Amino acid sequence: MTPPPPPPRKERTPADARRRLAAPTVAMLPRIADSLSFLYLDIVRIHQDDTGICAEITSERRGPETVYLPTAALACVLLGPGTSITARALATFARHGTTVLITGSGGVRCYAATLPDSLTTGWLERQARAWADDDGRLAVATAMYEKRFGPSTAPTGANLQQLRGFEGQRVKAHYQLLARQYKIGRFRRSYDPASWDTQDPVNLALSAANTCLYGIVHAAILALGCSPALGYVHSGNQQAFVYDIADLYKAQLTIPLAFSLHASTNPEAEARRSFRDGLRLFKLLPRIVTDIQHLLDPDTDLQIPDPDEQLVDLWDPVAGAIPGGTNHATP
Fold first, then answer.
1. DSSP string covering 186-207, please?
2. DSSP bridge pairs for 38
3. Which residue in 116, 204, 225, 319 has the fewest CB atoms around it within 10 Å?
4. pLDDT tens per residue, range 276-317
5. Among residues 211, 222, 264, which one has the least CA distance to residue 105?
């Protein structure tokens, strides 16, 4: 009996080839440590064509421009104001293991997140194990204290209540030192949303700057796959762990900034602009990730990022690498 003839082979088109090239295998996907880390986008339309995900920008001067995004090498994408994204592009981000965050301008808020199925739960499991054990939770809280105030600053055997007392004394002394430095007399930290307009410029600037910090810390926690709700010092809030981690940086970033704006007529806006314009938050992201990893897994030797390292350089055939993030049209 003669076998039936094979079905006619489907003719492949160039579009089929591009689709095959754009679909990575699991082995092609990089680990989070190898990724390009974070990408922030705003005022842009994101969609997917036959080749991959692209961002379209339209300006009066240059018209429409298209930039393809290296989705398989991105750990986290932050979508700021003025961004629209198609469902197909969002699905591709999820398939490639990229966390997508909806943020405010410059990442100073974190409104929502989509976590891919392929994101590891390793850090979440470490966080949950230490959180659920009283000794483990105190050990992480003690490590946070010493990360803020220096090695061996926490008295041996101190419980959580004692650590809170020591932390309050040190922060109060820091306030007094900066108040004397800026000659603004006595300062008292106050956060009262019900009487917001009656607060002094330092308190307004400090609240605004802390809110910026919470946004970027929230983004880093979600990018690792951790829970923002499982805090070691704070508790009972969906952002308890965000507050824990943000406290590590306030003495260095937000508190001095707030005191420097003591004479400002618009301290909230100036505090927000200071973070965005200086790209401090984006430079801070890799450091936050590393600090969280050290707190949850202190026995593993992790590489500490250089805070002065430029995130992106521009290529120049004469001068070599020149700093990115700068408007080079400005004299």
1. -------GGGGGGS-HHHHHHH
2. 76
3. 319
4. 665 555 567 778 888 999 999 988 766 555 545 545 566 676
5. 211
